[in-house]
Amino acid sequence: MAQVLRLCAGDEVEFFDGSGRVMHARLQTVKQGHISLAIIERRRESAPAYPPLTLALAQLKGNKMDLVVQKANELGVHSFLPLVTKFCEKRGGGEAAGARWQRIVIESCKQCKRTIPMQIGSAQPVPHLTASDFSWATLRLVAWEDEQQAGLPLAAIDANTGPVCLLIGPEGGLHRDELAWLREQGFQSFSLGSHVLRAETAAIAAVAIIQHLCGALQPQIR
Question: Rounded to an integer, what distance in angstroms lies between the CA atom of residue 97 and that of residue 100?
Fold first, then answer.
């Protein structure tokens, strides 16, 4: 606050604890290594009223995962589940990556003023998942570049939809055996159009569409 934002005495700031509690405060003294403030207001923000969305994403190369984590948090995704699939990038999904993604989420929350951060799950290999791992999701969707019939089921998504799980495969796509298994678990495959999108583009686009239909992108009363 003192060195980067260069705030001064009299400036007002907000603090959040990650569980919905927010403190509105006014800075009293701002010195290098020392800041004092007076709390003006305390409030608790309730959990969002729209259906929770989990984004399950096969691990991508380079910093593409970082980008999707940041944008998913901004768009109000409830939780993020990194996956290991047959054709995905299998490196960078350990504890170090999880800690980095958590830092990205917190920084994103500061920027977009989200008070309850997106939850980050540990990397899961698709073959080791079971039907019970998705039993909580009322609607299960998987993007597939070879889908020729179905788009996103727009009519099935609204503010009254239960929890949603959106699964996006890697750059190399999902193996047909993986897709067959996902369909057995109740996933509906869909297309995002005639153009083959990059995995990170598909994830962000699909999340934005679903969140819009669920009401997550409407003004929220605080």
Answer: 5
Strand order across the 34-44 sheet: 12-16, 21-31, 34-44
User: Crossing angle, helix 64-74 and helix 199-214, to 10 degrees?
Assistant: 10
Count of other CB atoms within 10 angstroms of residue 109: 18
- Burial readout 39-56 (b: 16 or more C-beta within 10 A, e: otherwise): eeeeeebeebebbbbbbb
Rounded (10°) angle between helices 95-112 and 64-74 = 40
Query: In angstroms, rounded to a whole number, what is the distance separating the alpha carbons of residues 177 and 193?
Result: 23
Q: How many CA atoms lie within 13 A of 52 on its CB side?
A: 13
CB 126 within 8 A of CB 178: yes
Are the C-beta atoms of residues 24 and 40 closer than 8 Å to each other? yes
| Residue 196, CA distances (Å) to 182, 202, 210 in order | 21, 9, 19
Cα(213)–Cα(181) distance, integer angstroms: 27
Residue 11 · residue 108 · CB < 8 Å: no
pLDDT in tens, 111-170: 999 999 999 999 888 867 766 688 999 999 999 999 989 999 999 999 999 999 999 999
How many CB atoms neighbour CB 126 within 10 A? 21
Average confidence (pLDDT) per 10 residues, the chain, 222 residues: 86 91 93 90 88 96 94 98 88 81 96 94 81 86 93 93 96 92 93 94 98 91 61
Q: What count of other Cβ atoms lies within 10 Å of the Cβ of residue 77?
A: 25
